Amino acid sequence: xxxVVLLGAPGAGKGTQAxxxxxxxxxxxxxxxxxxxxxxRDGTALGLEARRYMDAGQLVPDEITIRLLLERLARPDAxxxxxxxxFPRTAVQAAALDTALAARDTSVAAAVLVDVPxxxxxRRMSGRWVCRGAGHPYHEVSSPPRTPGVCDIDGSELYQRxxxxxxxxxxxxxxxxxxxxxxxxxxxxxxxxxxxDGLQSIEAVxxxxxxxxxxxGVAAAG
Length: 222
Ligand code: AMP
Hints:
Elements: E1 2-7, H1 14-25, E2 29-31, H2 32-42, H3 45-55, H4 62-73, E3 81-85, H5 91-102, E4 108-115, H6 118-125, E5 128-131, E6 137-139, E7 158-159, H7 166-190, E8 193-197, H8 202-215
Parallel strand pairs: 1-3, 1-4, 2-3, 4-8
Antiparallel strand pairs: 5-6, 5-7
This protein binds adenosine monophosphate (AMP).
């Protein structure tokens, strides 16, 4: 099981890179934010609980988040490996992941940090829109849709997630950057941390991720 962790602050471009990397490696993306949004949409008990934190720009408690992630990792399509996007976000989550992988005789192959300075993150996030159909991401400035308010890919309506609205962004950044620091340290200590410059073009960031993974011994599917 090949487990790659993508790290970066909200808005660093992980959400753009993860599916591209998934196609290159031939393993699925597991994004806890998407899992939570699906649970909210489905109106499950876990979704209702998680929503209170998400709408306030806070992290969902570790116990709930770890349970959700482990359930997802147990599904058959995760058998060859996964790209984790948005997990772990705390040191407790990172340790829980290590324990779960150790029980399967494996470990995180690489943790790739997409590094972007805080002021650039705020600029990026306050212009972010996603589609209702599938969450395809757009940005007012750097990647606008062909028709304003409409998804290029599936034609559904674009909206700003409650947690992407400017008022929520600051609170979210302050809390999450602090926790991200702990996760970065966790992987620096275990020796699997790789850092790529997130201020480059999408293609250049993708290339830098491939180079970092090759260095860590993670090869593309072919
Ligand atoms: P994201 O799409 O990754 O930005 O996640 C959206 C929201 O889901 C976050 O602001 C958190 O409230 C929650 N969330 C996603 N992943 C995690 C995690 N690993 N730990 C705690 N909360 C999370």
